[in-house]
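Lab meeting notes turned into a lecture example. A postdoc, R.K., suggested we walk through two folding results consecutively so the class can see how the record format repeats. The first protein's sequence and structure tokens come next.
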Amino acid sequence: VQLVESGGGLAQPGGSLRLSCAASGFTFSSADMSWARQGPGKEREFVAAISWSGREEYYADSVKGRFTISRDNAASNTVYLQMNNLTFEDTAVYYCHLLGTLYWGQGTQVTVSS
């Protein structure tokens, strides 16, 4: 199993970033996926999840209405996290997770700074 995140970087408050997680080594189209994050000095926390079909999405209250999780089962075996209206509190390392397993990506850093 491999989960490779990309798309992190520096953004201004109110800005946007789109994270990607390229998945391989398992049947992606049958797998529920999620994003989590770990901010400086904080524990890792749930951000968003998406069912294998893409029909169901779940969000932490802190990102609801600003972040959108999606996936591409057909072409790229990738799960995305569109992050809009970023705030300082969104600064964290963001991780992709194969739900129900111990498989995590290596993480991608998101820094929100003016």
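The second example is placed directly after the first for contrast:
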Amino acid sequence: VQLVESGVGMVQPGGSRTLACVASGFTFSQNDMTWVRQAPGKGHEWVASIYAGRGSTIYAHSVKGRFAISRDNAKHTLYLQMNSLKPEDKNVYFCNTARGTMPWGQGTQVTVSS
């Protein structure tokens, strides 16, 4: 079982970035998936989730309207499109099943700075 996040980089405020998470070792298409983020010294903050089946999505208030979670079941890949980035979006981003049942990956660092 493995989750590998990608999309690391520095973005200016107001910019955009797309993160990807490639999953392996479990039935990706049958799992609700989630993105969380973590600031230094703090716990995970839930960002967004997407459900298996119809692909319904839900978002944290802090990112709603700016971020979009999506999935490609054929590619076993979860995405997070981040728009209108703010300095407070600077975090390490992780993906997992909605219940956090898989081993955590290394995450991908997003820095928002001018």
